[in-house]
Task: inverse folding
């Protein structure tokens, strides 16, 4: 899989409300080739593009996401909190997001969000049928912090393009997960990145994806070890990105 150097975090979340259709269009308009989005299910089982377990941060509502039906979620304004220009934005279903991604020719890193108390099967049952045929495999990466999610996806689809997400430091036993799951990529929080482990990943033939990078100057030295991609709220802050657009 040929991942780009820059992936828009939750769409183009520096310019539009995160995880919305507007953020996807903003990314495409800016020349961002791939986006990262989060998926989880409402209480009625509908997979939606949303990051938090609750709705209070990015909408005008309150309560937990899993307590809402799609009809109730549609009543929420998920744009005005970011800027009045986005008033009236509604929560996007996975299907709606995929339609825009396909229409605009984007690639997608879809992160499966799973509460540690929940079983992975309902989320995977809801998401995989929508993904199948929605995008070419070379433009789709499925990632998660949950090994339970990744294990079950791999059991169902031996060729699924997977990305393993690690929080904080890359664990010493990262290779055990990689050998079992055979991922396309390893995703790490760049603030906790260990150079020796990072080189192990690169030398192992996997893409090294760093999140969430918004300080080009502080990150600059990491390019030299062979980082494949960065996930950023604003790729246009990077000279590398703007030069590539100009060329």
Result:
């Amino acid at each position: 899989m040929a991942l780009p150097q820059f992936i828009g975090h939750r769409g183009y979340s520096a310019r539009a409300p995160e995880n919305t259709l507007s953020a996807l269009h903003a990314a495409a308009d800016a020349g961002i080739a791939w986006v990262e989005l989060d998926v989880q299910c409402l209480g009625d089982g509908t997979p939606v593009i949303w990051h938090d377990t609750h709705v209070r941060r990015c909408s005008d509502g309150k309560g937990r996401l899993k307590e809402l039906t799609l009809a109730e979620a549609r009543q929420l304004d998920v744009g005005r909190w970011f800027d009045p220009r986005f008033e009236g934005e509604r929560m996007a279903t996975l299907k709606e997001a995929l339609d825009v991604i396909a229409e605009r020719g984007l690639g997608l890193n879809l992160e499966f969000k799973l509460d540690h108390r929940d079983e992975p099967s309902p989320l995977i049952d809801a998401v995989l049928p929508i993904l199948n045929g929605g995008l070419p495999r070379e433009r789709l990466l499925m990632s998660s912090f949950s090994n339970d999610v990744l294990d079950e996806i791999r059991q169902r689809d031996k060729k699924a393009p997977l990305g393993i997400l690690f929080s904080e430091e890359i664990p010493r036993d990262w290779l055990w997960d990689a050998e079992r799951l055979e991922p396309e990529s390893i995703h790490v929080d760049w603030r906790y990145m260990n150079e020796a482990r990072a080189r192990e990943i690169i030398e192992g033939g996997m893409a090294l994806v760093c999140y969430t990078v918004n300080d080009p100057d502080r990150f600059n030295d990491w390019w030299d070890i062979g980082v494949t991609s960065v996930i950023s709220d604003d790729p246009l802050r990077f000279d590398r990105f703007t030069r590539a657009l100009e060329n």
